[in-house]
């Protein structure tokens, strides 16, 4: 079929080597963003020819890394059931899921998504899901009815970022406990209830 660009599914061993390469790339690039393809191959435990067979050049590897991380993040958001779970439950689940994925893919998810790519579309979809959950939370009176949702979205993202990168000595590491803290702070701030 001429003109089709759909990739053939990879064999199980090829999928495994791609997964190993992407995981190694994340580990190495998060420490040294200038790491070479050869260093990534060594970190993954594969040969130079294997990494070059799977990825024509370094940018292809980076693009695949960004897409893989975006897919995992989008799945984490979807697993929180943003349109069907009660808003507080959805907010907690999504927060815990996102913290887990973002914690594992800090380098890949720090890359800006190239406009027009699948990764960019996934990020746009996640933004919409976030606004949906916030809108549903407003309807459920969890947040003020006059709340500016785009502003609250930025505040929520800032709390996620601070949770992931703020205090490296934070004793709390469990995604559910971190999510509870983020959601509590997001919904109630530093003020007492009363």
From TrEMBL:
Xref: SUPFAM superfamilies: Homeodomain-like (SSF46689)
Residues of the signal peptide: none
Gene3D superfamilies: Tetracycline Repressor, domain 2
PANTHER family named in the record: HTH-TYPE TRANSCRIPTIONAL REGULATOR BETI (PTHR30055:SF234), HTH-TYPE TRANSCRIPTIONAL REGULATOR RUTR (PTHR30055)
Protein name: TetR/AcrR family transcriptional regulator
Keyword Calcium included in the entry's annotation: no
Family annotation (Pfam families): TetR_N
Record InterPro entries: Homeodomain-like_sf, HTH-type_TetR-like_transc_reg, HTH_TetR
UniProt source species: Streptomyces drozdowiczii
Taxon lineage: Bacteria, Bacillati, Actinomycetota, Actinomycetes, Kitasatosporales
Protein keywords: DNA-binding, Transcription, Transcription regulation
Location of the HTH tetR-type domain: 15-73
DNA-binding region, residue range(s): 36-55
